[in-house]
Write the structure tokens for this entry.
Amino acid sequence: MSVTAKPAVAAPPARVATGPALATHQVAAFVVMVALLVSAPFFVYPVFLMKALCFALFACAFNLLLGYVGLLSFGHAAFLGSAGYASAHAAKVWGWPPELAILFGTVMAGALGIVIGALTIRSRGIYFANITLAFAQMIFFFSLQAKFTGGEDGIQAVPRGTLLGVLDLRHTYTMYFVVLAVFLLGFLVVYRAIHSPFGQVLKAIRENEPRATSLGYQPEHYKLIAFVLSATLSGTAGATKAIVFQLASLTDVHWTMSGEVVLMTLLGGMGTVFGPVAGAFLVISLEHYLAQLGSWLTIVQGCIFIVCVLTFRRGVVGELGRLLGKPL
Amino acid sequence: MIFGVPTQALFGQLLIGLINGAFYALLSLGLSVIFGLLNIINFTHGAQYMMGAFVAYFLLQWAGLGYWWALLIAPIIVGVTGIVLERTTLKRLYQLDHLYGLLLTFGFALIIQGLFRHQYGSSGLPYSMPGQLTGGQNLGFMFLPNYRAWVIVFSLAVCLTTWYVIERTRLGSYLRAATENPALVQAFGINVPRMITLTYGFGVGLAALAGVLAAPIYQVNPLMGADLIIVVFAVVVIGGLGSIMGSIVTGFGLGVVEGFTKVFYPEASNTVIFVIMALVLLVRPTGLFGRTT
């Protein structure tokens, strides 16, 4: 059984055999998305957009695991948050330039992904969700107590610095387009991974693991690679976010953040290419507008969870794709 | 002095460990019972534990019913809300992937905790100890408050009774059979859907009972279950999901281990359970008492 609405199964077998061709409607959707994101900062508050883009990348990375391998990780905040700490520390204490700080955060999240992945990947379904959650909580307590994370205060006043010694990131628009570039790069990596032979094997494992094993694939290897890739890209999102907001804090490692990325992916559409992006923008907008209402935000989020699970399992983009008759 | 630590401190932490262990055991027992039959991890469990404490508080404030009544009534009230939740929403998801059940209960946890926090803020409300259990015994090597002794003894009794009912009675045998093969048990004329509903209600009731027990020790707080439940998830993973005895033994055991960690290496006291979980997973992926699948 799969968690998703089986998005890519509709592709004709011939296309699978010759390697996945770029579906024209997906290219069109991609062009529209890029056009919107390039023009958006001139109409919408850029800092809000940067936040949404970081979360969109986080959700895409998460969706790689949930939507295409069928593994629900309830501890992805660990990767987002620890990468944030790593890059903030590198930029502030060691004085590294932003590109190296982000790279360092990404690598650290990947390394953490290898450790946690190796321990958890043998478990399935609910066990997997449970265990990843517990590990993330361990990282949370570590971040609370360790010296370099600053405990409750977090790492504040992280310098944005100068990218490659040329681009001054203190300038909001420059920062925005750098974040956009990072997001698009991550998005394309996920897209490429899904539409590669590797991605086909992942989907095969999701649909029928014993069968994939009998065909000679080793599901655990594939799952672990997908897990590490997902953790790494979550790290990129977290590291970039720390540089943008000049802050790494406990919020990003707390389990509520793991819940939020599940919500984004669920609302946007699990197992769709564009769903997590749409979901991230929707959830971040919601938070933006409900921020003054305090605990009502959690209540509204809980209601969205319940509505999505009971009646709207394909998510926004999944439903849209179904109406158009094409997977998005 | 034992290992360079004053005896007083050592036994004090042992007591705190046993108290925490009692809550871990009660909560993980409820989770295990629910998981056994419904195959879902009840993410609302922490919120339902909190509801138990709040219902005890309401009973005292509005109806003048004290601790002993609360111990009886609160689990029933919260259990009934659980039954309503199962009948109206959870049962629609049994044909789907079990992860949807987890996401649904997570949504409910957010709503319940949000509503209580909206109403009562995040500072705790005091709930006083029952008069019969104030004071304590001086055991010579340590001072044992009566209420804490009561919590340990009572929760141990509840855990062992539950174990006995499930493992040693006819009702329990139906339950275990339905865990193995619900369709066959249904064919024998046993109303499995009703059993599932009542089981969920019972598991939720156990959480509420733990909440009432906790009310006089910790304060009644909307977020009292939010972080606790994650530790309990780890306890359940260590014990083996669905194992009744495993939940009880690991619940108490890990509480004690956590208590001793506070004495010998306080920095690790929050993380020790998760470290143990990692080690157990390396050796036995299905948990200490879990069946190999």
Remarks:
- Chain A has a mean pLDDT of 87.
- The longest strand of chain A covers residues 162-163.
- The interface with chain B takes residues 1-3, 70, 72, 119-120, 122-123, 125-127, 129-131, 133-135, 137-138, 141-142, 144-145, 255, 259, 262, 266, 294-299, 301-306, 308-310, 313 of chain A (CB under 8 Å).
- Residues 44-254 of chain A form one domain.
